[in-house]
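re: that chain from earlier
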Amino acid sequence: MARARRIGANRGMSTNPKPGITARLARFAATADAARFPDSARAIVRCSLLDWAACGLAGTAEPVAGIVRDVVAADGGVAQARAFGLAQPLPARAAALVNGTTSHALDYDDTHFDYIGHPSVAIFPAALAMAERLDAGGAAFLDAALVGLETACRVGRWLGMSHYQQGFHQTATSGSFGAAAACARLLGLDAGRTAHALGIAATRAAGLKSQFGTMGKPWHAGTAAANGVEAALLAAAGFVSRPDALECEQGFADTHAGAGGDADAVLHGLGEVFRFERVQYKVHACCHGTHAALEALATLRAAHAVRPEAVERITLTVHPRWLRVCNLEQPRTGLEAKFSYRLTASMAIAGLDTGALDTYTDAACARADLVALRDRVRVATDESLPDTAARVVLQLKDGREFTQAHDLDAEIPLAVQQAKLQTKAAALVGPERAQRMWTVVQGVGTLSARDLAAELVGG
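^ sequence. v structure.
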């Protein structure tokens, strides 16, 4: 760590870059006082760590996880960090790639609506791999992960919805910046070197929404994590990049349809107020864009004892930007089903468990009763709705009509969130393993990163 600090002080461009958004985020990553991080933010990070690890362990058997794991393992290399599904540790960058891809393989991990991306699957794999490589403590890992998660949220918010609407997947793009910030902090890089790490990430970050419904989407999380490890290591070695790469002419925002909003507003409270605390956890094993509608449908079904054969029409109203994300009208595969308002709605009304992984199958897409119900679902849009909300109108054949709205952004007490996540983890990895993981996560500060990885990533 001391060597990295000397490199940052003596090599490359100035260690006091201009105070644009890149430099300000770099200073945050390098100098933020962890003692001032609120306990509420740490509590949410622990929740996300449990959720991430459970999703990763459960995703190990997914085909995309096996393909990436086999390709990376065949390369070999220095044993530095653990990877889901492998007994032999991998180089840190390779472990980050495997763990990011694997933990997003089920598309069941957390989401942040500041930028409609999945933060944990990009940041935790990078931070944990780097922490293992450095033999850092669990407390240092947790602080670095929180810095990276917050960086991803702030970058995503600054880039704005124009970036997402253009077709970029922010898990891959904003996630790369967050992963780089987390790894730079673990390496002890100063603000100047960290700005170079962010600059390197800027020219590496990529990921297209057109890959949704394919193996490309979970791979985005893996590439973001690997980008972060690589960028930070290169910066530590003296690699020089643009230290203003986010905001400069022909920089990331300029070339990737980023709005480049008011940096003062976007960065307000940085280091003391953590927007990551607004993270959303999935209780349905499908695209988070469908969840508000599914919650509203669950309320209606329970309140009115709705039977599928009694349904005349279901109208789901959402923000129009979701139409290019999760509105596959006639999904053919289980993976495509996770991105279909119409099919997930029919599953919910039919009483299928939308929180169960085995609900989303190719056979379900072809099931006659679900297809018939699917074809009675209409998707409408309303620009006044938040990204987190949906409105459902249920019309029955007997003429009755019911309306229900739901907003995922409604505050949920921490104890309720923890209980839901423990239940979810138990369903994914078994009650005994889930309880052990929760105990480990609660005591993360007393463990080394290597012991933490052995418990959360190891078989």
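The chain is about 50% helix and 5% strand.
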